[in-house]
Structure formats: structure tokens, C-alpha cells
Amino acid sequence: MTEIPEDHPRQESLLTRHRIEEGVEKGITSRQGLIAEGRGEAFDYLLGERTLPSADDAARAAAAHLLLADRPVLSVNGNVAALVPGEIVELAEAVEADIEVNLFNRTDERMRAIADHLREHGAESVKGLAADARIPGLDHERAKVDADGIHAADVVVVPLEDGDRAEALAEMGKTEIVIDLNPLSRSARSAAVPIVDNILRAVPNVTEHARDLRDADEAALERIVAEFDPEDALREAERAIRQGDLE
Ligand code: PTJ
Which domain, by its residues, includes 215? Predict the structure, then answer.
């Protein structure tokens, strides 16, 4: 790849593109993942490539939900694995969550490549390969989940998701934490906690909040959860995108 100078104004996003490209070359990310990345980049540009205060509140509420959960699971697809493999493992450790691979464009090769990639980044166990349960009401590959993973989870983190599964999981009564740069997406709109932020910033931010809240008692965590309003968070993100005050 062409060397990207450190002072290049788009250095960060060019490096991110390169990671996604590498993911495709390694058989981790789907080719559609390239398109998803482009869409995300456009929203991030309009947000000023920063974490809005409302997204930070959402990350804190997400951390509180995860710490309160009995069976939290972090769902990983090809873009997530390419962009934040080590950060997902750190979050899983901080909140004692399982990691499960769940793909829209599911093949055995990609499932295995992603599980291996996550193990190389420190994951001790990776679910998703058993696929011994189904999410009701979904007829595509994303319906395939592990009975002791996403199927049994009470809180699920679903980053960069398509709307169908997000809605189906919400229908199953699970608390959903969605990370998506598009505040108008169906996934963000069906989430108990929509984090409208780049996954590169959002995952480490949730981990930081989780570490900060590690010693908080249940009542304090429940207060953080109760005080968070998903409608406000979506409205705030949409306002920032529409009104944009880019410097
Ligand atoms: O790996 P697979 O087979 O499961 O496929 C994964 C993709 C991402 C290809 C699939 O889920 C898909 O097509 O997703 P969509 O419908 O394009 O939705 C992806 C959403 O993620 C869009 O709303 C994007 O704006 C958003 N997005 C893209 N990149 C980022 C992002 N959100 C946060 N951080 C990003 N870096």
C-alpha cells in the first residue's frame, strides 16, 4: 500500500480503509463490508469524526447494562473483526461477556477465519460456530446463533448491523446495544442503547466506562440505565449531522 504521510488530513480514515481492505484480503471481511465502511465514513465526516456528548452518555449506559447483565454477548461481524479485534476482546474481559461471530454473508471459511483472528487477539473462547439455535422470524444466515450464546443472552452488543436482526433480537426481549454511525438506521432505532459513533472510538469508550463503573453498586448502575433516553441520543446525533458545525 502507498505510505500515508502522518500529516495527511484524512490519515485516520485512510488507515481505516486499509484495515478493511486487509480484512477482505484475509477472508475476514465481506466485499459488502467495503461499501458499509464507505457509508459509515460519510456519516462520521458529517459528525466531525468525534464522539458527541450524547454518544458518550450512550457508551456509559451501555457499560452499565453490560455490568448488570447475567449473560452479555458481543456480536462480531467481518467489519468489526477487521477494525477492532483487540478492543472487542478487552471489552469482553472488562464486562465478562461472551464473544460470538454472527455473519450476514456466512460461510464456514469466514466463520473460522474470524474466530482464529479473534483468538490471535487474545480471545479465549469464541462462539458462533455451533449454530445450534435460530432467531425466530429471520430467514437469512444471521438467524443462526449458539444456544448458549446470543440465543440465551439478556444483553447483546450488535455493532454495524443490518436492521432485520436488530429488530428480531429486540422482539425476543433482549436488551440491545447498537453501535452505528447512522442515527436513522433501523438497528439504531430498535436499540435500547444506540451508540451513534465510530466503532473505533465507541468500543474502547464503553470499556473505559465499564472500568470506571466496576465498583459501582447495582442501584447506581440502574440509575445510569434509567436516566438514559435513546430518543434523545438519536435526536442529538441527527441534529449534529443535519446542522453540522464542521470547523
Ligand atoms: O460481515 P458480514 O457478512 O456480517 O456483513 C457485514 C456488513 C457490514 C457488510 C452488513 O452488516 C451490512 O451490509 O451492513 P449495512 O446494512 O451496510 O449497515 C452497516 C451500518 O454500519 C451502516 O449504517 C453504516 O453507517 C454503519 N457503519 C459503517 N462503518 C461504521 C459504522 N458504524 C460505526 N462505525 C463504523 N466504523
Answer: 53-243
Q: Which three cell numbers stand for residue 46?
A: 458529517
User: For residues 103 and 158, what is the distance between their CA atoms, to the nearest angstrom?
Assistant: 11
> How far away, in angstroms, is 180 Cα from ligand 1 center?
8
Ligand 1 center–CA 135 separation, angstroms: 20
pTM here is 0.95
Name, in order, each residue with C-beta under 8 angstroms of 2's C-beta and a sequence gap of 6 or more: none
The pocket around ligand 1, CB under 6 angstroms, is made up of 30, 32-33, 36-37, 39-40, 43, 77-79, 83, 103-105, 160-162, 179-182, 185, 198-199
Establish if 31 belongs to a structural domain: no
Torsional sign, CA 187, 188, 189, 190:
positive
Low-confidence ranges of the chain (pLDDT < 70): 1-5, 8-10, 245-247
Q: What is the distance between the alpha carbons of residues 161 and 179, in angstroms, rounded to a whole number?
A: 8
Number of domains in the chain: 1
DSSP per position, 71-137: SEEEEE-HHHHHH-HHHHHHHHHHHT-EEEE--SS--HHHHHHHHHHHHHTT-S--BSSS--EE-TT
| Residue nearest atom 31 of ligand 1, based on CA coordinates | 40
**Alpha-carbon span 241 to 48, nearest angstrom:** 9
